[in-house]
Amino acid sequence: MTELLDYEFMRRALIAAVLVGLVTPVIGTYLVQRRLALLGDGIGHVALTGVALGLLTSTSPVLTAAVVATLGAVLIELVRVRTRTSGDVALALLFYGGIAGGVLLIGLTPGASNATLVSYLFGSVSTVEEADLWVVGVLAAGVAAVVAVFGRELFVLCQDEEVARAHGLPVRFLSVLLAVTAALTVVIAMRVVGVLMVSALMIVPVAAAQQLTKSFRVTMLLAVTIGLLSSVGGLATSFYAELSPGATIVVLALAVFCVSVAVGGVARRVSGRRALATRRPAGAGAAGTMPQTDRGRVT
Amino acid sequence: MSDQFTDVGADVPLAFQVVDARVAYDGVPVLDGVDVGVPAGQTMAVLGPNGSGKSTLMRTMLGIVPLTSGQVLVHGAPLRRFRDWRRIGYVPQRLTAGGAVPATVREIVASGQVASRRRLSLSTRADRTAVDEALETVDLAGRGRDSVRELSGGQQQRVLIARALAGRPDTFVMDEPMAGVDAENQQALARTIARLRERGSTVVLVLHELGPLENVIERAVVLESGRVAHDGAAPEPTGECARPGHEHQHPHPDPNAPEAVEPTTAAEMIRLEVPGRD
User: Fold this and answer.
1) What confidence category does residue B123 fall into, taking pLDDT thresholds of 50, 70 and 90?
2) Does any CB of chain A come closer than 8 Å to the CB of residue B88?
3) ipTM
4) Contact (CB<8Å) B149/A286
5) Is B62–A165 a contact, with Cβ atoms under 8 angstroms apart?
6) Neighbours of B2 (CB within 10 A)
7) What is the rounded distance in angstroms from the CA atom of residue B17 to the CA atom of residue B76?
8) DSSP SS3 for B15
9) A293 touches chain B (CB under 8 A)
10) pTM (2 decimals)?
11) Which residue in A40, A57, A225, B223 has a CA-CA distance of 20 to 30 Å to B11?
12) What pLDDT is attached to residue B1?
């Protein structure tokens, strides 16, 4: 494992992987709670347009991606609220617009090609520079601050928007805040796992964790642990086995998910049998996996 | 303005005042000029057939549904300028209390304090005591660490009521708290609401039928096609269907029949969900 640290680029990549592993599942927990699991993916595609814009204008692609992804996140909330478009359709629009914009802009950039874009699509740890690391660090701190300050309100919002309204919470502001935080998280994760797998690292650790937990807080903590282990472990594995880091990280997270499903199933069966004498068994919707196929609500 | 309500004493402040409320969805009127004043401390039921606008009325009272025209005052302040949200406890009509991520009963109940707690503050002893009391009030003490998903529908409904209680509000708004709840749980809920009334809380309940709450309700407003059809003493249920404006529609299982209460298939759950959304 120490050999890994001999390389400057690997040290930078590891720092990035730690930040990503810590931050993505936190925001992912709220997205899963809100049934907007694919939001990260949609924003990720918009971030591609930002990357291309950065390359075209010779600015830091991470910075322009952050700006464009944030605008995209605000846009998707507006589209959901102002037009007769449901959450999943709004996401689809974002998806197509983002990737088309990226390819279009990269074509205008001298010296860059779709291959440059691909390095952002699938992640490219070997090209993480020190400046990128600073940007990523600041963004990670920002996300942590948002969750620390607004976490309680976001929990209510993501659980039941109507109840949030009846509590007098600033629902519109919180929705945009969550979407923007997700956008920034996507940009953070982009350099390590790539745009395509950002959503996976946001959602898969949460999906794995909730197989084993009863509480929201424990789900989040466990998801962060799984995210951290997957991203650092995946990066190390990819270094030694010469695999694609992004793909390795996600496959590792998915492996943890499979194990969690199996362990959770056994655990529930055991505790269910024990509880059968005293209380009713959990309803059909309560047991088993919770596939995230919902695409968000129309409000 | 309150002199237009003959049944409201001039001295009692109004918890809610709805003035000529009109709501239309895509041009179709749902509320068609409703005037209701709820004096502080009153326990009032909003009754009416499906589609009469009773749920919409309740939601406009909290600003969940925007008014097309008219005005809602909450504790004397127009909704837009009302800031004292910690006084409001809202119990939505839901079949489940949780989101897509697991949450414990305690986490859900404690989230009811979101309006009364400062940002970046840890829970105080008083906050935790309030959660404990709320759980005791709905007879769920000892279930705090369980996942809400493990509870029955009636128990989850009680979790939602406990959530409203946890913020220690003095004004409650409940949307069909008896829907999908078995007879035993209905009695427990009726006791809880009676306790709130004794404490001097204002309670507004949207109900499909009075049921075990008959003795707790002081006043009933019956809506029909978005207008107030009756306002006064709770209608005497000489026969359940004798009430004015009551079209007896029961597409869902009778909540009084315990064995029929728990939806077992997804299709039944959907059918149960629909009638309350008017």
Assistant:
1) confident
2) yes
3) 0.81
4) yes
5) yes
6) 15
7) 8
8) strand
9) no
10) 0.82
11) B223
12) 42
